[in-house]
Every structure is written in structure tokens, then in C-alpha cells.
Amino acid sequence: MTFEEFAAAQVGPLLGMAAAMSGDPGLAEDLVQEVLLKAHRRWRRIERLDAPPAYVRRMLVNEFLSWRRKWARYIPKADVEPDTRQPDHAEAHAERSALLAEVVKLPRRQRAVLVLRYYEGMSDAQIAEVLGCAETTVRGYAFRGLAALRIEMKSAELR
Amino acid sequence: MRSEDDLRAAFTAKADDAPAADQVLRAVRRAASRRPDRRRWLVPVIGVAAAAAVGVPLALAVSHSSNTSSRKAGSGNLQTAAGGRAAGSANDSSAGAAGSAAAKPNAPGPNPSALCSPDDVSVSVRREAGEGALLVTSRGPACRMARVPSLSWPSGSTTFGTQSDDSQEKRNPANFGVLPVHGFATARVRWHGCGLPSGMVVYVDWGNGPVKVTVAAAPSPAGCATTPTPSNQPLVVSPLNGLS
What residue of A is the nearest CA neighbor of B23? Predict the structure, then answer.
């Protein structure tokens, strides 16, 4: 598989994941672009891996986690402002927007864990591998994040 | 209280707001194609630096090696020459005249060929109008001879004119050339007046002793006597043309 083919297939999911993590489409674009460029540079090594998409997702998470450190000095506000567009009148959409606004206020590691768990559908073991930490740490991040968002944990025990 | 499904739906909705993939791909392609540009000048620079790093020491090593070998070869020649000189001086001290003969310029020289013996060449001298021509023709192998041979013009027991007979000059290898295989060499001989008529002999010495040569003459120029007219003027011979 060439890098072009890989990028064309993965750019959509990567953008979705980046948008969910960062809460801002513009920042998601920058993140994915940076990650794909890095992947392009190391493509000969990456294409030999068993699961290049998983590796690039890990790159994206790491980029997201380091991104704030890297770009904090250039961005006046450390936290990205929530989406201020007027939501639909539907109550569900309003609730969703409120939830996302709270998500972007979470610490970045908690946010990454929630996105990987609820958007990417990864298990705690997989998340631990991506973040390079223990599963218990992942559960701790998830627990604190969900608590902050006042989300009832139904499936946490099953993971 | 919210549920996990609400969070999933929120993330999915947010992901739907992600920018168009085409836009990102275009940007990635543009940036990725720019990156090799930056390396385009870097690669030749690195290549030249690597070539210099390898080539210069290699060239120096090769140069040093050839210098050393030529120096060794040179010192070998010097040793040989020194040995020859030592042998020559031994001959001088023990055999007298034989030692002098050994000191003749037959060993050192630009060419390893031996001096031409009278059997190796045929020599003729021919008088032409106002001038003479010396012709030396090889009969076989290449051999060495003096570039300017000496000519002796005897009349009875008297030699009236000779070329330079300086023994030091005779020993100088630079004054010797090589007569090619089956080649020939010529030199001009200047006569004086009507001297050296036909039937006389001259002795030609190219470094290996005088060789008697009978002069073949063209018809005498008008006003010249048919009898020999000895002259005390030295003969003048030009360098042999045809030696390498």
C-alpha cells in the first residue's frame, strides 16, 4: 500500500477522531495534517508494521497530547472555546452541544481516553497501549472524566 | 444524569463537523512534495562531501604510494649505477687500459640497448656538391650511438681534422640516441673546399671506436682537383637525424 492510498483511506477517520478530541475542526485539521506528514516521512517503516492505522492513531493521540505543549505559546487561550454556533432547537442537540462544551474543558488525557473509548471503541488495554500507561491509569482517567461530565458508567465494569 | 451513549453520540456529531478530507489530503500532498525539494540540494551536498571524505584521502594515499615506489625505483637505479661505477673503478685499478675501456659510455643511458657495434650497422659517407652525407643504417636490433659522431680524416699517418673527441662528452648518456630496428640516421658533413676526394677514407666513431669508411663521391664540383687536397680544417658534422 502506498502512502497516498493509506492517507486517502485514513484521513476521514483520523479527522473525526481529532475533531472529537480537540473539539475544534480547525485544530483537528492541523493535527491530522501534522501526523500524516510525519507518517509520510516514516512511511517505509510504518508500512511494514502489522497495523499501520493503529500506529498512526497512536501518533495522532501523542500529537494531540503534545500539541498543547507545543503550541500553547502561540495560542492565547490554552483551552479551545466550545462551539458557539447556535444549536438546533431540538433538545437533544442542545444537550449534545452542552456535553461537548464540557468535554473540551476536561484535561487532555481524560479527553483522549474518552474519545478512544467511546468514539474509537477501544478497550482499556488498547488505550493503555496507545497512551503508554497502565490499564488502571486509563480507568482512572475515564472515571474522573465521566464523573466530571456527570455520566453514569454502565459498561465500565465490563471493560 | 447522562449516559455513555450520549457521549458516543456527541463525539460522533463532533466528528461529523471535521473538515473535508480532501482539503487535508491536498495540504499533506503539498507539504510532502515540498519536503523533498528541501532535500534536493541537500543530497548533492552530502554526496560531494562524502566523495571528498573518501576520495581525498584515497588520492593522497595513491599519490603517496606512487611517490614511494618511484623513489624506491630511483634509489635502485642509483644503487645499480653506483655498483657499475665501483666495478669500473675496480677495473681501472686492476686492469689499467681494460678499465678505461669499461668506462666507455655503454652501460648507463636512457635506453637499455647496447652500443651499436660495427656489425650492427652499415655506414657510408658520400660526398656531394660542397657537402657530405653520413648515413648509418641498422642491420638488425636497436642499438645506441652518439648523436654527434666524430669523424677523422686521415692523410697518410696524419689526421687533419676531427670532431670533438672529448671523453667526458662521450660518457654523457644524454649525448646518445637509439637507432631503431632497421632504421637509419643521417648527418651532414661539411667539407672544406675540394678536400676529401673520392677514394679516401674517414673514420667514424659513434662511441664504440673508429670505424673505417670509404668515401663515395659524386662528381667533383667544377674547379676541384682530382687529387686529394689535405686540409687542416676540422670537419663539422651535424647531429644524426633519425635517432630516438
Answer: A29
